[in-house]
Design a protein that fits this description.
The protein is α+β, with helices and mostly antiparallel strands and 79 residues long. The protein has helices at residues 18-34, 50-64; strands at residues 40-44, 70-74. Helices cover 41% and strands 13% of the residues. A two-stranded parallel ribbon has the order 1-2. The longest helix is centred in the first third of the chain and has 17 residues, at 18-34. Mean pLDDT is 78; it is low at 8-14.
């Protein structure tokens, strides 16, 4: 399983929102390492924009019919 490296921090107001960067970086790195999209994606919903930012690029591929990525939302019991 590939290790996803953190995305660069964006400080420009006109740049892409940071929450969406992690999803695009993760998708790019998984495709580079595995040559395909993952079968399963797990993301925390208790972390604010973490879930949306990580899953949206993969959800777009799922909606296009390119890959049926199973997306699982998780949250710790303490939240």
């Amino acid at each position: 399983m590939p290790i996803i490296k953190p995305a660069a921090v964006v400080t420009s107001a006109s740049a892409t929102p940071p929450a969406s960067i992690i999803g695009r970086e993760a998708k790019e790195q998984v495709l580079e390492a595995e040559r395909k999209l993952p079968e399963l994606l797990v993301a925390c919903v208790g972390g604010g924009s973490n879930f949306g930012g990580l899953t949206l690029p993969f959800l777009a591929e799922k909606l296009k019919g390119n890959r049926d990525v199973r997306i699982v939302a998780v949250e710790p019991a303490a939240c």
